[in-house]
Write a structure and sequence with these properties.
The chain is α+β, with helices and mostly antiparallel strands. The chain is built from 23 helices and 10 strands. The strands form 3 sheets. The protein has a 5-stranded antiparallel beta sheet with strand order 1-2-3-5-4. The relative contact order is 0.05.
């Protein structure tokens, strides 16, 4: 168990003997008011908020008051052994010759928070208190025997009602219990009220519960005009005539009363506390319609205290049917996304749970947090966002592409708060320039889209003709050059083409005459029906003349086959074709 020193450092147990308190310690209830305990609010060595029940012994001797010492020991034993959500949670205790101190979860007395609690939360508090009393009566076979408004505390973490002051807790139906009650009679809350001798374990608690309802009317005057609360109070009076059989407490039937059962806050909280036992269809119906309806009908303070903490847990955030219906929890009033809680309420009730969920390494939980980041980002300060950035960047290194995409989308929203330095490893510099700033126009004063520049006329590039042959290019460049050739008229171009064809025809005629005069391999076909009548040598020119074409004197019908040495150039062959 954790121990703290008795020195006067912050987090140590304070000493009240000289009416001095340590720094960071607040006295909530003084021992002089209760006669038993002083309630202190302080910080532990781990800087966690705790509550301390401290009793300072008399200076002469601890045994000066045996009854008081017995009651204090009885409270210590029951707080250490009883574990229930409706009982003040015990952490550890410390005792010496001067004082006895019990460290518990941070709690505040109910009577000190009446101005902060809404009347709609009374039904939920009474429901939790009845559940705690039934646990004592039916499971532990004992009674609290000191039930009053002073014995009820409110938890700082979830704002639920807790039962404390177990100085008189025992089984009043046995002889030992009756002797203890007689010994501790001075410290009973309702010692002047007659207790019916029915042998019931719950007899004194039924009386105490009836008196508690009367005390709450003085704290919340609105309850006097509530007909359902008055009916509930009448049902509590009738429990005194019911004998406890040992199997069921008379207080159990009060849980089914209309005042408790029809309360919307009780219905929502009970469903969220027992979500795991409900079917998928029941959860879908509750999250889709009932939850939003209840949240909008209740005060925003009640929603933040009792519903937000139950929704923002790893188990609930992993529910697929809930992820689509958390808008009312994260949104803040006064922004584009209208919510039900103000900025101060969101920082107090929602943001602490959200920041703690970033320590949970579950994909579903992280996706929900990243999805609603733009909504609760308004409630965070710049330093809080900077502190959260390293945890946000962890999603960039995950194997899930969806998580990487959601992380990048969420980081883009943080740029408006902390600037563009949200991604590490990048050196920022001026790459793009602002045309408006160069012209002396402020970009902030410019509204609307940037001015559109008219499109430039299309640039026409003339097509370059492909030269037909080397000879044509030589003829074109023979005059004043390539630039002058582009300025020739159509008639001049036609004359140049005719002269080129005449020159090519002359060259062919001259080549033909040279072939005839050489007499090498010129053979006439005498038999056209025989394919083997003409034979050619490897050194022959291979000039074959057709009889009909030769008789007609048509030179165009002559087919010339020459060797590679005398073959015309490719450009000339193309022109001839």
């Amino acid at each position: 168990k954790k121990k703290v020193s008795s020195s006067s450092t912050v987090g140590s147990l304070p000493r009240m003997g000289n009416a001095q308190t340590n720094a960071g310690t607040t006295v909530i209830v003084d021992q002089k008011e209760t006669g038993t305990w002083s309630l202190l609010e302080c910080l532990s060595e781990e800087k966690e908020q705790i509550s301390v029940l401290e009793h300072m012994f008399a200076k002469d001797s601890k045994a000066a008051n045996i009854a008081l010492d017995t009651c204090l020991r009885n409270a210590l034993v029951h707080l250490k052994t009883l574990r229930h959500p409706g009982i003040v949670k015990f952490q550890w205790h410390q005792e010496d010759s001067v004082s006895l101190s019990i460290v518990t979860e941070p709690v505040r007395p109910l009577l000190s928070l009446t101005g902060e609690c809404d009347v709609s939360e009374v039904a939920l508090g009474l429901h939790d208190l009845l559940q705690t009393l039934l646990f004592l009566h039916e499971r532990c076979n004992m009674g609290h025997n000191n039930l009053s408004a002073r014995s009820i505390f409110v938890s700082v973490s979830d704002y639920g009602w807790r039962l404390g002051q177990f100085e008189c807790a025992c089984d009043p139906s046995c002889p030992e219990g009756l002797q203890f009650i007689e010994l501790a009679k001075e410290y009973l809350a309702h010692k002047q009220l007659p207790i019916p001798e029915t042998g019931n374990v719950s007899a004194r608690d039924c009386v105490g519960f009836r008196e508690l309802l009367a005390e709450l009317e003085g704290v919340w005057p609105e309850l006097k005009s509530d007909t359902r609360y008055q009916s509930f109070q009448e049902a509590a009076r009738q429990t005194l005539s019911v004998k406890f059989t040992g199997a069921q407490s008379p207080l159990r039937k009060l849980l089914n009363h209309e005042y408790i059962k029809s309360n919307r806050l009780v219905e929502a909280v009970q469903f969220l506390r027992n979500t795991t036992i409900h079917s998928k269809q029941e959860k879908d119906t509750f999250f889709r319609s009932t939850l939003t309806t209840v949240a909008t009908a209740l005060p925003s303070t009640s929603v933040g205290r009792h519903i937000a903490g139950l929704l923002l847990t790893p188990v609930m955030m992993a529910e697929p049917s809930l992820a689509e219906h958390l808008h009312f929890i994260f949104a803040v009033t006064g922004t584009d996304a209208q919510g039900i809680m103000t900025l101060e309420q969101s920082r107090k009730y929602v943001l602490p749970h959200v920041l703690s969920l970033y320590d949970v390494k579950q994909v579903r939980v992280r996706k929900v947090l990243l999805r609603y980041l733009p909504l609760y980002l308004h409630a965070m300060t710049k330093e809080e966002v900077r502190h959260l950035l390293p945890e946000l960047r962890l999603g960039l290194y995950d194997f899930s592409n969806d998580l990487v995409w959601a992380t990048l989308a969420a980081l883009s929203h943080t740029v408006t708060v902390v600037g563009g330095d949200v991604l590490p490893g990048f050196t920022r510099r001026h790459i793009f320039h602002d045309s408006l700033a160069l012209r002396g126009v402020s970009p902030v004063a410019h509204h609307g889209p940037p001015p559109v520049r008219p499109p430039s006329p299309p640039r026409i590039v003339p097509a370059v003709p492909v030269a037909a042959s080397t000879a044509s290019r030589d003829l074109a460049r023979a005059g004043d050059g390539e630039s002058n050739h582009s300025k020739l008229t159509t008639e001049e171009k036609r004359q140049q083409r005719a002269a080129k064809r005449a020159e090519q025809q002359r060259l062919r005629e001259e080549r033909r005459r040279q072939q005839k005069s050489s007499g090498l391999g010129a053979t006439r076909k005498t038999d056209t029906s025989s394919k083997d009548s003409a034979s050619w040598g490897t050194d022959d020119w291979g000039v074959q003349l057709d009889d009909a074409d030769d008789a007609a004197g048509n030179a165009s019908a002559i087919t010339v086959s020459v060797t590679d040495q005398d073959r015309p150039q490719p450009e000339e062959e193309k022109e001839e074709e």
